[in-house]
């Protein structure tokens, strides 16, 4: 039997590989899509993945978790600076841009994250005519300005269902929740997440935030606190999430309900929060921290995300 020392002599000493180099090599080997590597900035690596299949994002998530790389949504109009950790920007491209009715005559559409808003308009959803035609559905859902409906009125988004890839690798389906929806929550991870979110929605901070005309936090916990005439929908938790909570794999839009937000009050309100609102602002910030921890305890996704 050949000894280890003899093999080492014959093959030479193995040079330890830079973790970022190893990450990029394994990513290229694992995915069918395209990987673009950028120059390092102050020693931090960054790259972009344009996935070909949804499974590419699952492979990328696993490698990001293993190597401590941030998985960030590409294409946001105002994304956070990500300088302190290596980052993989994921751009949902043309291979993930499907858009079709669920069935003939239905008002509900199955939409993949790479579909452009201009394509939704061309398909007949004129509600999107005044929004930027070049941005993806994934970027629209993540954008806090474009998803800034009044408190308790997130149903105006038209989002009925969504599938989201969480940091631990779970894919969970989010949608209507309540007496009229008899479909049970699938999986222990989703059951625990939803239970914790409802507990948080009953907290005094959430109740105070709900009294504001516009939701003061980053993450739309008011999806669980709907206004009269609106119903609870767990998918609305993703509206304006900034790419911080997970990767949106697909959504179902109801063209009858979609009333996209066309003005952009969130950025101005967040920058100009008044001293009189300090208690509510502190409560909103605390809620955001807790929601982020529930969805992404390992900070795989950006934190705090689209920081306005």
Automatic annotation (TrEMBL):
Superkingdom of origin organism: Bacteria
Name the record gives this protein: FAD-binding PCMH-type domain-containing protein
Species the sequence originates in: Pollutimonas nitritireducens
Upper taxonomic lineage: Bacteria, Pseudomonadati, Pseudomonadota, Betaproteobacteria, Burkholderiales
């Amino acid at each position: 039997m050949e000894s280890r020392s003899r093999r080492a002599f014959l093959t030479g000493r193995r040079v330890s590989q830079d973790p970022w180099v190893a990450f990029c090599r394994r990513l290229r080997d694992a995915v069918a899509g395209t990987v673009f590597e950028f120059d390092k900035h102050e020693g931090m690596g960054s790259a972009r993945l344009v996935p070909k299949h949804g499974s590419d994002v699952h492979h990328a998530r696993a490698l990001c978790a293993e190597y401590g790389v941030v998985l960030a949504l590409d294409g946001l109009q105002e994304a956070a600076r990500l300088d302190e950790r290596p980052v993989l920007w994921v751009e949902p491209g043309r291979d993930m841009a499907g858009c079709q009715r669920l069935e003939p005559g239905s008002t509900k559409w199955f939409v993949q994250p790479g579909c452009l808003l201009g394509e939704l308009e061309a398909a007949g959803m004129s509600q999107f005519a005044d929004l930027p035609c070049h941005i993806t559905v994934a970027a629209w859902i993540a954008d806090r300005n474009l998803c800034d409906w009044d408190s308790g009125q997130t149903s105006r988004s038209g989002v009925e269902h969504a599938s989201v890839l969480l940091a631990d690798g779970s894919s969970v389906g989010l949608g209507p929740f309540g007496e009229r929806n008899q479909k049970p929550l699938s999986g222990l991870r989703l059951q625990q997440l939803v239970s914790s979110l409802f507990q948080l929605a009953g907290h005094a901070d959430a109740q105070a935030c709900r009294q504001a005309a516009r939701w003061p936090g980053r993450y739309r916990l008011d999806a669980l606190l709907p206004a009269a005439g609106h119903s609870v929908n767990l998918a609305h938790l993703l509206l304006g999430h900034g790419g911080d909570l997970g990767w949106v794999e697909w959504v179902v839009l109801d063209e009858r309900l979609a009333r996209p937000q066309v003005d952009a009050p969130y950025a101005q309100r967040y920058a100009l929060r008044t001293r009189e609102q300090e208690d509510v602002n502190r409560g909103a910030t605390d809620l955001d921290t807790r929601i982020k921890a529930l969805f992404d305890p390992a900070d795989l996704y950006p934190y705090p995300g689209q920081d306005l």
